[in-house]
Amino acid sequence: MVKLDASKLSLRELNTSLKKACVLGEEIHIANPGARHNMAVCILSKCRITFDGSVGYYCASMLDGPDVLVNGNAGWGFAEHLYSGTVRLTQNASLAVAASIKGGEVVIEGDAGARAGIGIKGGLLAIGGNAGYLTGFIAQKGRIIICGNVGDAVGDSMYESLIYVGGKVASVGTDSRVTDVTADETKWLGETTERLKLKTRKGTSWKKVESMKTLYHFDKLKLKDRHVV
Amino acid sequence: MCGIAGIFYKTAHRQKAPVGEQLVRMMAALRHRGEDSTGYTISGESVGAGSVLARLCAPNAENGAEFSAAMKAIQKLGGKVGTKKQIGQHLRLTFAFKKDLRAVADALLAIPGLEIHSLGQTSEIIKDEGDAVDVDKKHHISAFRGTHGLGHNRLATESQVDVRHSHPFWAYPFPDVTTVHNGQLTNYHKLKRIFEERDYRFQTHNDSELIAVYLADKLAHGAELIEALQDSIRDFDGTFTYLVSTSRGIGYAKDKFAAKPLVVMERDDVVALASEEVALRQVFPEEIQRSEPQQSLCHVWLN
Q1: Inter-chain residue contact A35 with B295, CB threshold 8 Å
Q2: Of A100, A137, B77, B222, which has fewest CB within 10 angstroms of its CB?
Q3: Region B64-76: what's the mean pLDDT?
Q4: Got the DSSP string for chain A?
């Protein structure tokens, strides 16, 4: 176990120490993160990192392998561009959580701000509370689970991603619609939320938001109406 | 970018709160959001009924002629100059005056090279080029105590880098209404023209000045602060998170895209707001419960 006190280290010292310990596959505990930005970024090996407190912008971004736990809140761009591993937050996340992730799992026990899961290309984003405006905007692949309610314009201009909502959908975005979940999906949702220890209301009636695919080619014209300009 | 922060004390004896020192620490933590200029609104004890607290600036002053002209203009209108304190090109002035402030504001703005940073009874704007620490060193912001205040770090995107175009902005000609803004108003020119046709004067080409004038106009026409904030979300285009301070308290408004950040911490005795949590943690180092307002939201805290 490696213990680091973030309040006594510069950002560069902190990230350098982290990377050295991560390469050895150590378990790392970081005290007093103080909501500073850019901590624990670009770590490409398997290890376990725990933050004892809130973190700032872009924490745990560009990771491939680690399991990260943050006991607190997170700022913008938390866990963005994750390739593999798991990132878990015990309280609320700000805007653009899990932006552009390609794999792995991001778990938010509290609420997420606007544009959660923007442009994801794979992986899973699971939110225990509510999610904000434009959740899943231009998401390409991967899945988002929201146990609570979701804000306006969910799934706007989405491609092949699927968004599952346990609570209310304020409104759907351009080119997306709400549909029913299949029996298989209900089973998967039950198993996944249980495995991730996310609380869901008893008898949650899940809804699915998916793309209608009319914007898929960025061109609504029929073939005969297209002209070479 | 730009960084903004605000603090508001709710409890008794709040006049003694170290608002200046706390705002400096918050703005220093947000330095990475802009360091072209830093400005503060400090609001506290009233200079008394019938008195006015003015903050003036003459950026190109060589012999202080602008300040002498300002005092003459005030006296000509029947004002009686009280205390005065000059730091470089900045002048803090109190004077007894019981009539409409617009006459004083117009007379001062007619003096070439003179800028009004603020006029009011309970608050003053201190702003200058440089980061939070530079401005504190020069103007001793840390020594200011009060009930509430605002702070702003500027990363100029819209207009010149100079003191005149720095935040906070005072709402000509209304006392004690000031704003700080993070974002861009895209219908600035259109709204500015509408206000100019109604005889409002603008001191700068900065879009953020419009917010202060817009709100003060609403208040002058009998709107509550919260109503003015709600209307502004409808009437302003672009991206914004802004804070407003009046003699009674502070408030915030966020645009319909949730494009600009704001983190709010509220306790029984105090409310603190900032662009990023890292700023709040300079004043409240323990783990705090904070919320993050989303799109099209506003809120006020008043005494």
Answers
A1: no
A2: B222
A3: 92
A4: -EEEEGGGS-HHHHHHHHHHHHHTT-EEEEE--TT-SS-S-S--S--EEEEES---TTTT-S-EEEEEEESS-B-TTTTTT--EEEEEESS-B-TTTTTT--SSEEEESS-B-TTTTTT-EEEEEEESS-B-TTTTTT--EEEEEESS-B-SSBTTT--S-EEEESS-B--B-TTEEEEEPPHHHHHHHHHHHHHTT----TT---EEEEE--SSTTS--S-GGG----
Contact between B287 and A133 using a beta-carbon 8 Å cutoff: no
> Whole-angstrom Cα distance, residue B128 to residue B134?
9
Q: How far is B223 from chain A (nearest CA, A)?
A: 29
Could you read off the pLDDT of A147-182 as tens digits, one per residue?
A: 999 999 999 999 999 999 999 999 999 999 999 999
Asked if A95 is an interface residue toward chain B (Cβ–Cβ < 8 A), one would say yes
pLDDT at B229: 97
- Catalytic positions of B are 2
Selected for mutation to probe chain A from B25, B31, B265, B294 (highest A CB count within 10 Å) is: B294
pLDDT of residue A4: 96
Query: What is the rounded distance in angstroms from the CA atom of residue B15 to the CA atom of residue B128?
Result: 25
Contact B292 A57 (CB under 8 A): no
Secondary structure element (H or E) that encloses residue B231, with its range = helix B225-235
- Reported ipTM: the value is 0.86
